[in-house]
């Protein structure tokens, strides 16, 4: 009598596991599903470039429209790179980049950066349009 109970238990286990696998999985919905549908309508670049690339956002801020739509808002669904601050950078009395190297603090891995330094060479008139 042990053999029929063993096969019955095995059959019951298989049926329960198949039922468990066939159940629909629930996934959380986004808070505002309309942003997901409008993902291609954004006007600013959605490339995965440098997170500190300011030039790519300069053109997006110049257009001033009175009608601010959903596509003009910043989306929370962007995939961004994450840069973490190391414990060495948080230690006291430590300069992030070599002194007088001409590199910005915002240069990623400025100790390992090679090649020419792109210094700031634009004049006062092109930035603030001030008089000399």
UniProtKB/TrEMBL annotation:
GO terms under cellular component: extracellular region
Range of residues in the leader sequence: 1-26
Keyword Signal: yes
Protein location: Secreted
Gene Ontology molecular-function annotations: hormone activity
GO term, biological process aspect, one: calcium-mediated signaling
Main location, first listed in the record: secreted
Keywords attached to this entry: Disulfide bond, Hormone, Secreted, Signal
InterPro entries per the UniProt record, alphabetical: RALF (IPR008801)
Family: Belongs to the plant rapid alkalinization factor (RALF) family.
Protein name: Protein RALF-like 34
Origin organism lineage: Eukaryota, Viridiplantae, Streptophyta, Embryophyta, Tracheophyta
